[in-house]
Amino acid sequence: MKLTDAEMKVWKLYSNEVRDKVIEDFEANAHTYEDNVTLSIMMLEQIAFSVSLQWRMKLKSQSSYNIPSSSVDEFVNIMEFNVIRKLKNILFE
């Protein structure tokens, strides 16, 4: 599936926001996540879910992102799935 320019812009903003929050959380709580991959993955997923909710609301309320409101839910779900997969690969493999 080829992304439009608008979707690519949103993807970059979204994935950078998730990445930054994950790094911030993992650095602040390194002692908690040490040797606990399951907890680390759960927190990564929770952060992605939280950011996804924010982006879902942004995209539905602001037409400046050029994402049709009828496709926002599916688009955000796809972004969330992909960012979790990408970060798991980077962090744990």
Helix and strand layout, with pairings?
Layout: H1 5-28, H2 30-33, H3 37-61, H4 72-92
Helix pairs in contact: 1-3, 1-4, 3-4
Describe the structure.
- With 93 residues, this protein is mostly helical.
- Helix 1 (5-28) runs antiparallel to helix 3 (37-61), helix 1 (5-28) packs across helix 4 (72-92) and helix 3 (37-61) packs antiparallel against helix 4.
- The mean pLDDT is 92.
- It has one domain (5-92).
- The protein is elongated.
- 80% of the residues lie in helices and 0% in strands.
Q: What is the overall shape?
A: elongated
The proportion of residues forming helix, as a percent range, comes to: over 70%
- Number of beta strands: 0
User: Mean of residue pLDDT?
Assistant: 92
Order of helices and strands: HHHH
Given helix and strand content, the structural type is mainly alpha
| Total number of helices | 4
Span of the ends, CA to CA = 26 Å
Features:
single chain; 4 helices; 93 residues; mainly alpha
In short:
This protein is mainly α and 93 residues long.
